[in-house]
Specification:
By secondary structure, this protein is α/β, with parallel strands linked by helices. It has helices at 2-9, 24-32, 34-38, 43-69, 72-75, 80-87, 98-118, 170-188, 212-226, 242-259; strands at 20-23, 127-136, 141-151, 160-165, 194-199, 204-208.
Length: 267
Amino acid sequence: MLKQHVQASVPLGVSGTSTRLLEDYKLEEMLRSPHRFIRPEPEITQASQLLWRHRVQYAVSHAVNAFYSMDPEVRKEVPVQYMLEKWWPKKTTGFESVLHYWEVKNKIIDELSRIIRTNEDLQHPSILFEQWKTEIPSLSMELSMIFHAAWQPEGWDSLLIQKYMVVYDPNVVEAFQHMASVFCYEAFGTLPGMIEVYCLLEGRKVRFMPGRQSLARSMDYIHLIRDSVPQAEDVESDQFSARDKARIHEEADRRRSELETKKTWLM
């Protein structure tokens, strides 16, 4: 029922007025490694640091998508490791070493298997690795997000939002929490019941329960970011400069420190 409301609510076209667009994956990359933005390293070094994480995230995303696309009864008979093998990097290129390659793989398999077991009561996802875009009229902008998995558990009138991250990053986790809260409120007419972020290599789950007070903080956060992220017309390409990336990180950190005492994170 909620998904039908979602499909009817999310605007599929682009409005005639000029609005700013905030895309979650671009913001995540800007927030993930701020030390490189402030003190840029050689491109070869950056590529080697990023390659393995991107490749593993690609495999995890496809594996989770394929696994939860199956009927619940079928999922009980198929180990998630089988799905992961289909997309896992076949070569160790980009990893720190062969040992690192296997350590990451084994940890991801163990953690995904554990998560699958704890989520056995979740039957059919309402959203599964789909990209959505909605307008935020009060901020004169559009927000685009890729939801890894969203569920409406039995008895809930709101969504359980889940994100699967290879490596924990507090800036990315916070940004996702704010963006998901604002997106759901604007597109679906209600806040998520709960937001869960799984950080696979650390075996960590960050859980957040949005409320009216946190929504106000999330809107402030999105407003701040909106005015900081360069738009396509502001740059010659879709690549952000080191100055832009440093500014995003510094402003996000400042905003988080101001609100630190008011947060209600549940770990």
